[in-house]
Design a protein that fits this description.
The structure is a single chain. The chain has helices at 2-14, 19-25, 30-35, 65-76, 84-87, 161-175, 213-224, 237-248, 262-266, 269-276; strands at residues 38-42, 46-51, 54-62, 91-93, 99-109, 112-125, 151-155, 180-184, 192-193, 196-197, 205-209, 228-231, 252-258, 282-289, 292-299. It is α/β, with parallel strands linked by helices. The chain has a 7-stranded mixed sheet with strand order 11-8-12-13-7-14-15, with helices on both faces. A 6-stranded antiparallel sheet has the order 3-2-1-6-5-4. Helix 7 (213-224) runs parallel beside helix 8.
Length: 300
């Protein structure tokens, strides 16, 4: 059942491709489709698929600039203006929750990117839900009084932080019945498409999409009265400052960061002050051994 689901998600990504490339990708085996993480299109190069063992070409057809433009039209339904805001940030979200990363010639005005033209590369990420993944961790993320703890999810890039965060949000919302405000800056957690989350983030979850975390956190705190605020990939001083203010206002926090371990984070000035201030009382560290992930919950 799991393999079928994983392969079906890949077929959904393949359906976004222009016809010639779609025909080439449809020749992938069921096992390859179930394992595929991304499809990559680079002008002048063959289509490739990213598998756990690396990236390899698919078919012999060479990607053309017209293919990239056709893909953009397929994803936006020939209404590119509706996705202009995220396109200038280098991505867009397709129906079904597929995140499309874009590279090309940036149009810059007064230090800000206003558009991307002449596409040269596209990456179609294949997101998959792992419902129930976070459920065994949930009891450790509440204090003795039954209130949610602020928790930090730590792992290296590609370690599965976003997948775990998505299911933590869903479990806190559906299983625990908490109001969760999700700052989905890059559209990778809820994958909102035309106002509707494409991924399961819970019936009590409110999503602020495509908004910098430092702006989304106070806005949701004012407008949605959340019990938990969730964010992905904290990397800026202003993100940390916004989370500290939210914690002082009484909201529990759920955030992910890149790192091998807590001791490593403590060596980084960005996080040292946040950890010392006691904003987070739990840490979930994701480790990968022999191709399998494990999840360790520690009290801070």
């Amino acid at each position: 059942m799991e393999a079928n689901y994983r392969a079906e998600r890949c077929r959904g990504a393949v359906s976004l491709l222009p016809r010639t490339l779609r025909e080439a990708a449809s020749l992938l085996s069921e096992e390859e489709m179930a394992a595929a993480e991304e499809l990559r299109l680079r002008s002048g190069q063959p289509l490739t698929v990213v598998l756990p063992g690396g990236e390899r070409p698919v078919g012999r057809s060479v990607v053309t600039p017209g293919d990239l433009e056709q893909l953009l039209d397929n994803v936006t339904g020939y209404s590119r203006y509706t996705a202009a805001e995220t396109v200038r940030q280098g991505y867009l979200t397709a129906d079904g929750g597929y995140r499309i990363g874009l590279c090309g010639t940036a149009v810059v005005d007064q230090g800000s990117v206003t558009a991307i033209r002449d596409l040269s590369s596209v990456a179609i990420r294949i997101p998959r839900e792992a419902r129930g993944l976070a459920r065994p961790l949930l009891p450790r993320l509440f204090n003795e009084g039954g209130a949610p703890c602020s928790a930090l999810v730590v792992s290296p890039p590609g370690g599965g932080k976003t997948t775990l965060l998505r299911d933590l949000v869903r479990c806190l919302s559906d299983d625990a019945g908490l109001r969760v405000a999700l700052a989905d800056e890059r559209g990778e957690i809820a994958a909102v498409y035309r106002g509707r989350p494409q991924m399961a983030v819970g019936r009590h979850t409110d999503v602020m999409d495509a908004c910098p975390k430092a702006l989304a956190i106070p806005a949701m705190l004012r407008s949605m009265n959340p019990q938990v605020i969730a964010v992905d990939e904290v990397a800026l001083e202003e993100d940390v400052a916004a989370m500290i203010r939210a914690a002082n206002a009484g909201a529990a926090l759920l955030a992910t960061v890149h790192g091998e371990s807590l001791p490593e984070l403590e060596q980084k000035s960005l996080f040292r002050g946040m950890l010392a201030a006691g904003v987070f009382t739990r840490a979930v560290t994701i480790r990968r051994r022999e191709g399998k992930r494990s999840y360790e919950v520690d009290e801070l």
